[in-house]
Amino acid sequence: MTVSTAINLTIMRRIFAPRFKLPVHVVELIISLVVLILGLVRLALRNRNAPRTRSGSMALGMAAKSIVIILYQVLSQHTKYFRKWMSFKANLILNCLEIVFWAAVAFMTLQANTASCTGVTCALGWVILVLGIIMCKLSFFEAGVSWFEFKDYKTAMANARDDRTASSSTTIQINEESRAKRAEDSA
Fold first, then answer.
1. Separation between Cα atoms, residue 90 and residue 32, nearest integer Å
2. 75 contacts: CB under 8 Å, gap ≥ 6
3. pLDDT in tens, the chain (187 residues)
4. Other Cβ atoms within 10 Å of 118 Cβ, number
5. Torsions phi, psi of 116, nearest 5?
6. Where are the domains of the chain?
7. Locations of Basic and acidic residues compositional bias (predicted)?
8. What is the pTM of this model?
9. Residue 47: CB partners within 8 Å, gap ≥ 6?
10. CB pairs under 8 A, 24+ apart, for 32-35?
11. Which residue from 170, 173, 178 is spatially nearest to 150, judged by alpha carbons?
12. What's the CA gap between 38 and 124, in Å, rounded?
């Protein structure tokens, strides 16, 4: 690894700091709930003669999906009962997919609003568009954090197998947990 690559990784680690993960999850959860509520209101207020568009349904589905994914991540990382289902790889994959899904919500809403937009449902559509873009950006941050956590996890597992020392706080915690588990298994 070259010096410039190491410097870039150090800068990226500072940007994608895990200490901001829980507050970002809380913000994502609030935005998802707002999108879900606005989508329901938009669906209820739509013109009865106008056809129901995919953008309204998609916003509802993606908001509900995001709520489930965020709850999975928060509960599996912060509660002892759900920790057995914790997976850094699953978090990475889910957060990368969230980027694509929220970008699709923003694109579909933009497409629907530019095709026909009248009344209150138009304003709600533009709000959902902005919230979709914000969720896309927050999901990008979460994917970056998940990538570094998964990378640290893989390093920690390799170090635990070789009984080497860990280099970061995440890997130290993982090494301690794996050593405790090996001690329980051997006893």
1. 20
2. 82
3. 676 776 787 888 888 888 899 999 999 999 999 999 999 998 888 767 666 677 778 999 999 999 999 999 999 999 999 888 999 999 999 999 999 999 999 999 999 888 887 788 889 999 999 999 999 999 999 999 999 999 989 988 888 777 655 555 555 566 566 666 666 766 6
4. 9
5. -155, 130
6. 18-142
7. 176-187
8. 0.79
9. 118, 119, 121
10. 32/63, 32/64, 32/66, 32/67, 32/70, 32/135, 33/63, 33/67, 34/131, 35/59, 35/62, 35/63, 35/105, 35/128, 35/131, 35/132, 35/135
11. 170
12. 7
Note whether 41 and 124 are within 8 A (CB): yes
CA gap 47, 133 in Å, rounded: 26
Contact 149, 88 (CB under 8 A): yes
Do 24 and 142 form a contact (C-beta atoms < 8 A)? yes
Q: How many whole angstroms separate alpha carbon 162 and alpha carbon 144?
A: 27
Task: Tell me how far apart the alpha carbons of residues 177 and 41 are, in angstroms, rounded to a whole number.
Answer: 47
